[in-house]
Amino acid sequence: MDDDERTAAIPTRLAAVRQRVDVAARLAGRDPGAVRLLLASKTVPVEVVRAAVLAGADLLGENRVQELVAKAPGLTDLFPELHVIGPLQSNKVNAALEWATCVQTVDSVRLAQRLSARCVTVDRDLDLMIQVNVSGEPTKSGVPPEDAVALAVEVAALDRLRLVGFMTIGARSDDDDAVVRGGFRRLREIRDDVVACGRPGTDGALGLSMGMSGDLEPAVAEGATIVRVGSAVFGARAVRDA
Ligand SMILES: *Cc1c(COP(=O)(O)O)cnc(C)c1O
User: Would the pTM of this model clear 0.85, i.e. be above it?
Assistant: First the structure.
C-alpha cells in the first residue's frame, strides 16, 4: 500500500481494532472503557499518523527518540498524548522529555534517576512504567520479573516521577497461547504486589501496558489498561523495522 491507500484505510482499521478490544473486554467481564488504545507509530510518516489522530486516536507511542522529535512538532496542533515505548538511552532523556508525558520503558534505577533529575531541573512531573521482560527472551528489553517489584519500589520514591504501571512485550505469538497469556498474568501479579505493598508512590501503579496487534485479546483478558497497536492499523512494516 502507498501512503494514500494506508491513510484511507485508517478509520476502518482503527474501528476494527477498537471492536476487538471491546469484545475481548466484555468477554472478560471488563468495562471496554477501561482499555486505552495506543498507536505504535514507528516508521509511519507524520501525515499518516495525523490521519489516525483525526480518526480518533488520542495516544501515540514512539520507539525511537529521533522519530519522536521529528514527528511531534507536526502533531501538537492535534494534542495527542505521546509515550516513549522503546529503550531510552540516557543521552536522549532531555530530548524525549520535550515531547513525552510518559516513559513506559524504565528498566533500571539509573535511567529513572536520570529522568527524575531532568524533571527536577525543568520543574515538571513525569509518568512512567516499569518494563518487565515476562517472557525472558534475551532479545527483549525489560527487568526480569523477579526484580520488578524491588525496582518499582525504588523508582516510585524518586522526585517528580509518578509510577503509573507496568509494560511488557508478550512472548512470541507463535508460542502456545497459554505461554503468551501466562506472561500477561505475571505482569498483572507484579502490579498487584506493588500496589499492595504500601510503599511511597506505589498506590497509583495500576496501569498495565500489554498486548499488540497479534496478542491483544489475551492481554485484555488479563487486565491490560493500554494495548499498543501498530500493524493492525497502519499495515505491515518493512521487515528491517519490525
Ligand atoms: C511496534 C510495537 C508495537 C506494535 O506492534 P504491532 O505488532 O505492529 O501491533 C507495540 N509495542 C512496541 C514496544 C512496539 O515496538
Answer: yes
